[in-house]
Design a protein that fits this description.
With 181 residues, the protein is an alpha+beta fold. It has helices at 6-26, 33-40; strands spanning 51-56, 66-69, 77-79, 84-91, 99-104, 109-116, 118-119, 126-127, 132-135, 147-153, 156-158, 161-162, 165-166, 171-176. It is elongated. The structure holds zinc ion.
């Protein structure tokens, strides 16, 4: 190897280093589930200013789901936690989720809203943060009005983050909705 070739090799190494750095920045697979959840910035799925109890418990199915409760839950607006595309609008009757909706927020992040009284969107609809998608109910295998809510990454339910804050696992967290304020 003659000395005049060395600068060219170094230049090539520099280009390779820059390319790998760029790929690291661009590749979403490099981001952890936590980072992706934080990036999507999921908001409390209710009217501005409403206070709800976010309940988590070990015998919940799926285990990391959240049940949102308040005394007058029945009929309250259910709003999309983030921008996205509606992927599921189903009615399972008296079983399981009853009337439920799923929304894909990109980056592998999705949310699910169950036991709804009514559904106000269709599959393929685009929604924004705070778009009303239905109302809270007690359909499916529910024993009283509440919103069963799931945050998923790549289809797996994860610990919910709302308004940038992790809620308590396991127990109760009082959350005040700042959606659409
Ligand atoms: Zn539930």
């Amino acid at each position: 190897m003659s000395p005049r070739h060395i600068p060219k090799i170094l230049r090539n190494l520099g280009v390779l280093a820059a390319m790998s750095l760029l790929l690291t920045v661009l590749a979403p697979v490099g981001a952890s589930a936590d980072e992706r959840i934080q990036d999507v910035n999921l908001r409390t799925p209710f009217d501005c200013g409403q206070v709800w109890n976010a309940n988590t418990r070990t015998n919940h199915n799926p285990q990391l789901s959240v049940d949102f409760q308040r005394s007058d839950a029945m009929g309250q607006n259910t709003r999309s936690s983030a921008p996205g595309t509606v992927t599921t609008v189903e009615d399972l009757g008296d079983e399981s989720y009853g009337k439920y909706i799923e929304i894909d927020h990109g980056s592998g992040v999705s949310t699910l809203y169950a036991h709804l009284d009514s559904q106000a969107v269709s599959v393929g609809d685009s929604v924004e943060t705070g778009t009303v998608i239905g109302t809270v109910g007690t359909t499916g295998g529910s024993t009283g009005p509440h919103l069963h809510y799931e945050q998923k990454v790549d289809g797996t339910v994860v610990e919910a983050v709302l308004n940038g804050l992790e809620i308590l696992y396991y127990g109760n967290t009082e959350v005040t909705s700042s959606t659409g304020c």
